[in-house]
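Lab notes, practical 5.
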Amino acid sequence: MEIQKGDKRTIKGWVMYDWANSVYNLVISSAIFPIFYDTVTTKMYKVDTYGVKWENADKQLLLPNEVVTVNFFGWQISNSALMSFVLSASFLMVSFFSPFLSGIADYRGNKKRFLQFFCYLGAVACMSLFFFTDLMRAGLIELGLLSLFVASIGFWNSLVFYNSYLPEIAEPEFHDKISARGFSMGYFGSMILLIICLVLIQVFDVPAVYCFLLVGVWWIGFSQITYRVLPNTTSPNVKEKGYIWKGFTELKKVFREFRQTYRLKRYLTAFFFFNTGVQTVMLMATFFAKKEINWPVDPETGKANDSGLIIAILLIQLLGAAGAFIMSRLSGKIGNVKTLIVSIVIWIGVCAGAFIIETPVQFYALACTVGLVMGGVQAIARSTYSKFLPETEDHASYFSFYDATEKIGIVCGTLFFGVMEIALGSIRFSVLSIAFWFVLGLILLLRVPKEEKVIENVKI
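Output from the prediction step:
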């Protein structure tokens, strides 16, 4: 079935997948699970270190500057550094497999099936986090983090095939607007579920693990709207023998075309660096805020009130939706690349500001700034790449290079973050060091030419 470009029903269906899957990015990656993980691993550390019972671990206070470590395959490692390393491993897997899978999907014409498979894989893995506390108490943190590892693979691999539909559903002049609409829908949808989770936890005292079940149900449920209206692809569904290797051949052909581009290559190189900074900050910001910001403490339990942190994350999401449209409008006036340059300069300021802030009010101010540039830079980065593509039908394969660049960057960023925390003994220095990626991305973005030119006789 051929996709009709500009069809409103198809575009609405495509946008709804952002609504469906963004709950993983907010609830699992940014808000509920990081706080839950830090709380559970801290309790486990107190049990192992001080010999207190699990039920009494909340009342056992940590010493000033005490680093929470966990036993992971016999290694004692900081809980936040471990999280960054697990995410790094998942992104490494995604970056390795997605180009190969997308080559097959383009050749077979069944990329919607791949989108569905990774959607369901990620959603079920999220729901399995329901058992995380039980696994921790049984000393099986490795098995608990396997669920997070698989959920990350499902989410990010599904985006390879989701993003590749953008050039097929609309003309280039509408990519900025549609991409921004997708991110905005994702922000609003994930905010709704986060508010529901917050009410369940704070008002009705429901354990946080039930929120992980809700994420999986929401993700699978709303994605059905997308699957109802989105055809497989514009390419034919070929059923020849040896299609796996033909998919690899297709990918090799696309890679040859890609190497002959000039502007696209330069842009993707710049994207690697500045997006590494963006994604690393987004993934690790909650751990930073939990450890370094002086949140109010309940005098009875001695525990910091996490509701203030979740409210800050909600604020980021709300402003992120607005920021996506603001950046879309700005790109229409000054161009995509200049808009990205403005965003990156602000991100550098965010990293510098994070190094010195200490109070919740200061964090709220920084969160507002992050929100305004977070959605915008992601939406414009995606649509800019889509605009720079040459005339082709192999959109999934081209977007696999985009996705692999993004994921390899996140591998480098999260590894860099964890290593810096271990080496310098402070997560605050890790956040400051992320500015390095933004500075390099800014320099390289300034070298992206206005027009494309083809480089002849490129061999691979």
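Observations recorded by the TA: Residues 255 and 398 are 8 Å apart (CA to CA). The chain is about 75% helix and 0% strand.
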